[in-house]
Amino acid sequence: MTQSNPFPTRPLEAAPLLKWALIGALVGLFLISLFLTGANNPNPAWGKFWMIKPLVMVPSAGAAGGVFFYLVNPAHFESTWKKLFAYAACLIVFVIGLWIGTVLGLNGTYWN
To answer: What confidence tier does 67 reach under pLDDT thresholds 50, 70, 90?
Structure first.
């Protein structure tokens, strides 16, 4: 008797993984750039290069969300309900990841 694997594995492909990570990073970079353009008179106590931290943290969080989307890959689900649930889960994880990356990136500057 052979046992079937209910969770089949698939190989990780570098090109689509990097594509989704880059898409997530670009979304994060775009959103934090919009937010940071409103900083006309930053506090001098923040330092000269205070924008570097959020410009690194938020795109990194977006890239992690893109990798999560690639790993879940909702297009592989057969049922419409499973696809919708997978897309919703990916969106929720992406938004929460961007929020956490934004909080960590802006900690010590905008959010003391």
So the answer is: very high
Calpha distance 6→60 (Å, rounded) = 32
Domain edges within the chain: 55-72+79-112
Mean pLDDT (the chain) is 88
Tell me how far apart the alpha carbons of residues 46 and 88 are, in angstroms, rounded to a whole number.
Answer: 37
For the question of whether the overall pTM of this predicted structure is more than 0.90, the answer is no
